[in-house]
Specification:
It contains 17 helices and 20 strands. By secondary structure, it is α+β, with helices and mostly antiparallel strands. It is globular, with a radius of gyration of 23 Å.
Length: 509
Amino acid sequence: MKEKDTVRTKSDVILIGAGIMSATLGVLLKELAPHLTITVLERLDAAARESSNAWNNAGTGHSAFCELNYTIENEDGSIQTKKALQIAEWFEISKEFWGYLSGTKRILDADEFIHSIPHYSFVWGEENVSFLKKRYEALKKYELFRGLIYTDDTKTLTEWLPLVMSGRDLSEPVAATKMELGTDVNFGTLTRAMFRYLESFPDVHVHYFEDVKDLERSENGLWHLTSNNIQTHEKEHHEAKFVFIGAGGGSLPLLEKSDIPEASGFGGFPVSGQWLRCRNRDVIKQHFAKVYGKANVGSPPMSVPHLDTRIIEGKKELLFGPFAGFTTKFLKRGSYLDLVKSLEFDNIFPMLSAGMHNLPLTKYLIGQAIQSHEDRIDALREYFPEVKSEDWELVIAGQRVQVIKKDEEEGGVLEFGTEVVSAKDGSLAALLGASPGASTSVSIMLEVLADCFPKEMSSNEWKSKLKMMIPSFGESMKDNPEVCLVSRRNTAELLELNQTEKTNVGSKR
């Protein structure tokens, strides 16, 4: 069908992508500046269909309680704690904001999207046990990790993790740390709740089936976006003063089309994800924990295995993984040409350089992609010795596009985090990368606000409102234990976390 032009829409803000990042930024802006008009453009039929979907992400509530890749061991045997402390604080900031939204009835009740579930790190072998003990000693002194418990006692471990310990060969040393403050977050449900709140405003318009094809700066200083409506095949035009590209794996191609100098040299390395999902409800009932292990030597951070209790659509589930795979798609519902189309003159060399420096990663991904079901079950058996192959099925998770950046020494480096790229004049921002992503969405969007609305962020009006929504705003939980203590006490009440009654309900599902 021939494309037809439609009437142009104008707004103060355009958010591309209806995921957790756009939802968070949209709500923050609407709370801080209620007069702003907002348009959201999403290529799929509903919010949170891609990376924010519950089946497409870990849902851990990345707080660094159990993710061992956030605490690297130095050559001298000491433990790096900086990243773990930063991520733990960022997650607390997210909880504060969610607590404000839930407590003020702007979104649904907290028990619809967040649940208390203990976080464990579990290791075996003398070297790994030694590492875990040192990690515990390094972190326990911080208020952010108050309550972290370590044990290498097999009786205690069996009480904590019966599924993990049953049938295990105890001739090899084992150990674990436990954090009762851990959570499971359904980011899909949370995202949709925030979009329902946004759509309650008459000047916020969310358009689905809108595939953004191009964006350029007009002579009048506004951003002009062109999209195709997937249902009607009509071409549509949109204008805004500020654009945020929060389209997950689809952000890089759109950022390239913006032609802002700050986007020069960025590339992307796509990685697919897979889970083993338990189909045996009796097995699922026996485990109520998130158990993270240590990635094998030479494996990338994304490969950290975990046996993971999830609460999805009110139902208890059990997943193991993630298993990675090589793909050229940037989105789960994307095109196999995405990687090729992302190549441009200014990023070819960084991408080739990063590829040359990460050949072991490519080999690892190919190896993951050709694994059989029994190979994956063997990996699971290290965490669940009495696993039965027929109880598990393979499900496809979301796509992740890792950031490749220019580097003076290496030519190009592969990053395993998130990156905010903002235009110098603050008129456009894009989010690239993956983990820890959704869990730290509030802190990431505060960075976008600081980059793109610096004048407003320095005003007493915005500071006062942010302090109301995020009580720790402007203070450090890492450096001030009292701030952390008060924050956790308040969010536990607002989000109804760490209540014995709630935990028991979840464990019976």
